[in-house]
Amino acid sequence: MKPVVVIAGRPNVGKSTLFNRLTRTRDAIVVDVPGVTRDRHYGDGVVGSRPYLVVDTGGLEPKTTEGIFAEMAKQTKQAIAEADAVIFVTDARAGLTPDDRRIAEELRKLKPRMWIAVNKSEGLQPDSAAADFQELGLGLPVSISAAHGEGVRHLIDEVLSEFPEDEDDEDNEEGRWPRVAIVGRPNVGKSTLVNSLVGEERVIAFDKPGTTIDPIDVPFERNGKRYTLVDTAGLRKRGKQGENVEQFSVIKTLQAIDRANVAIFVIDAVDGITEHDQHVAGYILEKGRAVVVAVNKWDAANAEQRDRIKAELGWKVGFLGFAKTLYVSARNKKGLGDIMTAVDKAYVAAMIKLPTPKLTRALIAAVEKQNPPRRGVSRPKLRYAHQGGQNPPTIIIHGNQLDHVPDTYKRYLEGVFRTQFALEGTPMRIEFRTGRNPYAGRE
Predict the structure, then answer these.
(1) What is the 3-state secondary structure (H, E, C) of the chain?
(2) Is the peptide bond before 34 cis (omega within 30 degrees of 0)?
(3) Of 101-115, 266-280, 282-296, 384-398, which range is least confident?
(4) Helix 356-369 crosses helix 407-420 at what angle (to 10 degrees)?
(5) pLDDT digits (tens, 9 = 90+) for 341-399
(6) Residue whose C-alpha is closest to residue 294's, from 271, 326, 262, 321
(7) What is the pLDDT of residue 73?
(8) In this predicted model, which residue has the larger pLDDT, 435 or 407?
(9) Which residues pair with 220 in a beta bridge?
(10) Mean per-residue pLDDT for 201-220?
């Protein structure tokens, strides 16, 4: 198994910068504001002599007993309990602070394998930058600069040297299981849904919009099948994003949808479908992602609200008519098994491989049943079809004069292919390719 390396420390000492340096990504948001990272954030470490998992955490605040910082500390402690090694990040510019001392005491109680990283040491003598932190008695501090990469390779090599090479280490390539993004506007119950599916408080579920900022990858297994759930920040309306942090969160949410195979689109049954929900649904469709619609808080909705949202599903997000719609309660764990069953079907449909002979036979049968409308004296001729891509399935149809095929006929063909190949839960794209006339331009 890959070693799990957790990055801990007080807020704003550069933990997320170190995470990005070790993973060579920008997956963790880096802003000079305390409390930006609020959940555990997993990534594959690529700096170092062997593969490992690195976990970015929120600040560890032992003296905080309530509010979001208390929840952050709870998440950090849980990450440390799961860790093989902990990198305790401190700030060379600030020196040894009372909070560092309190965190050191807390870490002693948790008893992990630990290394002290004295960050922001660029331009300082390494020995003098680390001298203050030796009195913590947690080993020899290592001076680094996460922003500039100084000392980072030396630090991670020291950490990994404690773990013997394992012949059964997983390959460094991405897993072949579905990535499932949980998306929707703020405060519709996305994090609660993730926690209910996983069966533990894996991400912070707080009754306040904007609690989740980073998209959080959550490995998950059900009935022997593996998934990666991605809890995303709620997409906010343009003009209401306010802080730069929230703007970055929106960007990362859109990136999470782009990287996902399936999106679980969460709607609030009590509030109904808003214009904002329509924008979220439109973006999912634009990216061609398979989708399952989860109408959450169904148990809290009265009869009038239930009738209203059923009607709104048809006329406000009717363009997601191919998706399975489920009425669930994430808090009470009702209907969650149906969600994952629908995710499985949508993933299979999105990644399906369609043989050219079967596609062509389905096309010919559709044309025999209903010809495309004429354009002047001639009628478009659809000759054969083949698959042009997956996620979403793309079907390319070849023939003559296909530039004049109307959208209504394209929708007819989409319905035929969807029924013929059981493509439930995924959008589909149909492209027409007109053959070149060899006599064009000749007298």
Answers:
(1) CCCEEEEECCCCCCHHHHHHHHHCCCCCCCCCCCCCCCCCEEEEECCCCCCEEEEECCCCCCCCCCCHHHHHHHHHHHHHHHCCEEEEEEECCCCCCHHHHHHHHHHHHHCCCEEEEEECCCCCCHHHHHHHHHHHCCCCCEECECCCCECHHHHHHHHHCCCCCCCCCCCCCCCCCCEEEEECCCCCCHHHHHHHHHCCCCCCCCCCCCCCCCCEEEEEEECCEEEEEEECCCCCCCCCCCCHHHHHHHHHHHHHHHHCCEEEEEEECCCCCCHHHHHHHHHHHHCCCEEEEEEECHHHCCHHHHHHHHHHHHHCCHHHCCCEEEECECCCCECHHHHHHHHHHHHHHHCCCCCHHHHHHHHHHHHHHCCCCCECCECCEEEEEEEEECCCCEEEEEEECHHHCCHHHHHHHHHHHHHHCCCCCCCCEEEEEECCCCCCCCC
(2) no
(3) 101-115
(4) 130
(5) 999 999 999 999 999 999 999 999 999 999 999 887 788 999 999 999 998 999 999 99
(6) 326
(7) 67
(8) 407
(9) 227
(10) 52
Q: Which of 193, 217, 219 is nearest to 205 (CA)?
A: 193
71 Cβ contact partners less than 8 Å away, ≥ 6 residues apart: 38, 204, 206
What's CA 283's distance to the chain center, in Å? 15
- Tokens 């394998």 correspond to what residue? 113
| Residue-averaged pLDDT of the chain | 80
- Asked which of 55-64, 80-89, 193-202, 418-427 is least confident by mean pLDDT, the reply is 55-64
Task: Identify residue 352 by its one-letter amino acid code.
Answer: I
Say if CB 19 and CB 192 are below 8 A apart: no
Residue 155 structure tokens: 């630090």
Q: How are beta strands 381-389 and 394-400 bridged, if at all?
A: antiparallel
Residue 37, token pair as written in the block: 């990272």
Tell me the pTM: 0.58
Rounded Cα gap, residues 157 and 86, in angstroms: 13
> CB count, 10 Å around CB of 176?
6
> Which one-letter amino acid corresponds to residue 437?
N
* Angstrom distance (rounded) from CA 276 to CA 238: 9
Query: Distance between CA 266 and CA 339 in Å, rounded?
Result: 11
**β-strands 52-56, 290-296: how paired?**
unpaired
Nearest to 330 by CA among 228, 179, 208, 197: 197
Q: Which residues pair with 227 in a beta bridge?
A: 220
Residue type for 391, please? Answer: N
